[in-house]
Amino acid sequence: KFTLDARAGASVDRESIGIGSKKDDTWSPTGRLSITYAAQDFRAMLFGSYELAGGASLGKTTKRGSVVLSLSDRFTPKWSWNLSGSWQSNRSTDDIIVVGTEDVMTAGGAAGIACQVVEWASIRLSGNVFQQWDNGLTGNDLTRYSVMLGVTLSNVFPIF
Asked: What is the pTM of this model?
């Protein structure tokens, strides 16, 4: 019913600075943790990570932390639901605030409900929300909402 996956280590970012062979090293811990619970038709997953990410946030090396939570359940033979949320932080590795520093945080969530109308057709209603906070050069925050109604038609056709 429970699954646990954990990993840990270290990352190094080596950048050439100035003229010649002078290098600037940035060390950072790296880790991932995932916990999953599954019982009959219910499933829950929690995932977290911390890493050094190159090229993120407008080309700056960043320290990225992420957390994701996901829940889903089939509560009757025809009905199911899901709910998920996420958060991510990208922080520049610069020790001081300098021109070009970019720090971005994002959060999002999704929810949905689905019904298997007949064996070959299902209908699904889902919604999403996304928020981004930018503390750097661009300084633009972003908020996005969406709702979707979908119909899936499917059938199995044996070829042989």
From this structure: 0.78
